[in-house]
Structure formats: structure tokens, C-alpha cells
Amino acid sequence: MWAEVTNAIQARQFSRATAIKQALEEKQREKARERDRNNNPFVPIFFGQVTGNGGRPELTDRGRELLRRAQERNWSLEGIL
Length: 81
Description:
Blueprint: H1 3-10, H2 14-37, H3 61-71
């Protein structure tokens, strides 16, 4: 999703990177507004909601599995998503 932003930064096209980033963020805001309209709250997959713990998130079971796979250089999301 952010590859175009990264590519623009690496090409030193900072104005383009900013424009792409702003467009992505606006799409995310629109998705959030749509979820609100449909009373469909966002539920994180990899982290639990943080209300304590000094603001440090805790991994869900899926998050722990993803981390375990990443440490083994296994990038498969099968069975996680």
C-alpha cells in the first residue's frame, strides 16, 4: 500500500510522496467514516486494544504467529488472515 510513497522518497520526489501519502490517509479516513456509519468498529488483528500497560500494545494470537513466522523468514499469511 505504501510502496509508491517509498519509491517517491527514494527518487527524492518529496512533493509526490507527500501527495500520495495524503491520498492514502484520506482513503483510510473514509473507510473509518464508513465503518462508523455502518456501526462496524475496527478490530485489530495483530494487536490488542491498548488502554493500559504504559501504552505498549500486546500481541494477539495471530500477531504472535505472524512474528514467529517472520523470525523464520516465512512470510505466508495463510491461516492468519
